[in-house]
């Protein structure tokens, strides 16, 4: 974990390796530090609801899928960009807590669908409200136009990596 400001690291590398173009360090270092700090902001809020960020990802994916709040495990895995094994572990944990249910797929006798239970719906609705409030607090220093610019710039970095 970074214990010093990113700019200090960039300056130190400049002293030790002036031949390196450190402009990438200045950007990537800030993105990495921001990711760590965002985790520190979001995790305690979700913990109040008794869920992890991974749990929230599953519940939120089902919730935003729309009525009937049901997806196949494969569709969930794709939406969350994780392996089927990772999805299964999350589903097992959430099903045991009564937050989602698995049933036979009515359109494919060999398949399974995962759906939110009423308990899961209430929990994710409350958790997403708190999560969005956290996001608003984090972004409060930026004006609306700056948020749009930042989103566009981050998209430009994400696209070639995805």
Keywords:
mainly alpha, Arc Repressor Mutant, subunit A, 68% helix, 162 residues, 3-stranded antiparallel sheet, single chain, 2 domains, elongated, 10% strand
What does this structure look like?
- This protein has 162 residues and is mainly alpha-helical.
- It folds into two domains: 1-48, no CATH class; 51-162, Arc Repressor Mutant, subunit A (Orthogonal Bundle).
- 68% of the residues lie in helices and 10% in strands.
- It has helices spanning 6-16, 23-48, 53-64, 73-80, 84-96, 118-139, 144-161; strands at 70-71, 100-105, 108-116.
- Strands 1-3-2 form a three-stranded antiparallel sheet.
- Strand 2 and strand 3 form a beta hairpin.
- Helix 2 packs across helix 6.
- The radius of gyration is 20 Å and the shape is elongated.
- It starts with 5 loop residues before the first helix and ends with a helix.
- The model has no long low-confidence stretch (mean pLDDT 91).
| Backbone shape | elongated
Please write the string of helix (H) and strand (E) elements: HHHEHHEEHH
Instruction: State the end-to-end CA separation.
Output: 25 Å
The mean pLDDT is: 91
Count of domain modules:
2
What does the radius of gyration come to? 20 Å
Number of helices: 7
Taking the sheet with the most strands, its summary is: 3 strands, antiparallel
The CATH architecture term of the largest domain is Orthogonal Bundle
Give the low-confidence spans: none
Strand content: 5-15%
Residue share in helix: 55-70%
| The CATH homologous superfamily of the largest domain | Winged helix-like DNA-binding domain superfamily/Winged helix DNA-binding domain
């Amino acid at each position: 974990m970074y214990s010093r400001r990113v700019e200090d690291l960039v300056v130190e590398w400049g002293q030790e390796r002036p031949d390196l173009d450190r402009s990438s360090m200045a950007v990537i270092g800030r993105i990495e530090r921001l990711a760590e700090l965002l985790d520190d902001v979001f995790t305690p809020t979700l913990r109040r609801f008794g869920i992890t960020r991974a749990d929230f990802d599953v519940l939120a994916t089902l919730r935003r899928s729309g009525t009937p709040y049901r997806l196949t495990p494969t569709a969930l895995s794709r939406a969350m960009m994780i392996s089927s094994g990772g999805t299964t572990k999350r589903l097992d944990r959430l099903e045991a807590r009564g937050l989602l249910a698995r049933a036979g797929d009515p359109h494919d006798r060999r398949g399974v669908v995962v759906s939110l239970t009423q308990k899961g719906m209430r929990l994710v609705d409350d958790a997403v409200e708190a999560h969005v409030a956290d996001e608003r607090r984090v972004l409060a220093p930026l004006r609306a136009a700056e948020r749009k610019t930042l989103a566009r710039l981050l998209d430009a970095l994400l696209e070639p990596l995805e």
